[in-house]
Amino acid sequence: MNLQSLKKSIYAFCLILSLPITSYASEFLIDDLNRDKSKQQTWLVLPYVFSSDSMGFTTGAVGIFSGYIQPQMTIVATTFIGEELALRNEDLTDPGSARTTGAMLAISGYQPSFSDRLFISGIGAYGYYPNQRLYLEGGNDSVKDLENTDNDAISPLQTQGYNNWFNIYFRHVLPWGESKKTVMPKIKLQRGIAVNRDHIGGGKPFVTGQTIFGTELFYSKWSAEKLLESPEINTNGIRLYLEHDNTDYPDNPSRGYSFGAKLSSDFGIGNSTQSWNALEVDYSHYIELDNFSWSRQNVIAMSFWSAYSPSWDDSEDFVESGVIKKHQTPMWEGARLGGWTRMRAYDTNRFNDKAAIYGTIEYRFIPQLNPMANQKWNPFPIDWFQIVLFAEAGRVAEKYDLGELLTDMKYDVGFSIRTLAAKVPVRFEMAFGEEGSAMWFMLQQPF
């Protein structure tokens, strides 16, 4: 793999999209035994630069602030700007040029004074991209052709446009299991490893562990200026979900399991493009292995996810002779694969259809060696480095048929180097699949 192909696969600007508010039932307090009681607050500011086809040479900075305002809260903010790129719009005689610009703010875990069990989180982002890729026809058999300039046959459609969105989460910790009496469990960390949780992880569902019922309000706008008709896809609606976490440390589990279910609905009101709905279920399991003399943690992590959109109607087009079907989920909702969480060797939302199935296995290893440990000059702790090997398989289909979903699946493999910085897992990943490779620089474990 040469440097040019590597650059084409970098999507480092997605650093801030995988955040604590998207993880499982994880409303808990951290007590870092390596830091004074008065210095539990941590922060991290990182500049970054990268180059990609969609954004060109881009520079930015991301800040992570943990334990400020309230001890369980995390605040993440980033902004970035790219070089001038020629616009790819054959409909304009002088398309001109534009640069990538974007910003994001996320606040997670705020506990209002009027409720002990309610937690409110929010995330919003603005971004303009001169050459984003939209997989409007992202079925399992679709062909990725970056050289095709036919607007009616492009997969993907490469166009300049906006990607703006925000989500607000209301998470209610149910009075069950570990949170029956104490809403937020206190997890004591010794160099990033939980040391007071030997008896936690893998108990009876809902009798042990933590369970959260959540409501999410979502809005997004994705524009494609290359299309003269219907150049925008807008969606807004509500998502209801139930999450159960029965692990020892939700941000980096070593044993136990977690599972959840989601129901998402856009009712077609306001500026919504059209109504749709989707169901998602998933299950993750973690097995702790014996340590070597030179290791701190060895874990086998496995995850299964599936999605289905009952509203999707393949028999009718949303616009006559158009690409989008009636009551179809947007490509970033429902049954979709590709990106920094599922099928990491493929473009974001590379595959999308009425139904999907996905499974992965990871080997996670934390060595004793940590050259950043006990660095007094460092304002934020680097508690461990983690080496990960992973393999993934998944497929989308026009109907939920296990016989079809389990044949002709997409596969990829990869490796990752992860670290616990400022109490937040940060991961660098490289994945290799049928359509090439992709590199990711993200926050939080993928599951």
Automatic annotation (TrEMBL):
Domain of life: Bacteria
This protein's UniProt keywords: Membrane, Signal
Stretches assigned to the Bacterial surface antigen (D15) domain: 226-432
Signal sequence coordinates: 1-25
Transmembrane annotation, as ranges: none
Keyword Membrane: yes
Subcellular location per the Swiss-Prot or TrEMBL entry: Membrane
Protein known as: Bacterial surface antigen (D15) domain-containing protein
UniProt organism field: Psychromonas marina
Biological classification of the source: Bacteria, Pseudomonadati, Pseudomonadota, Gammaproteobacteria, Alteromonadales
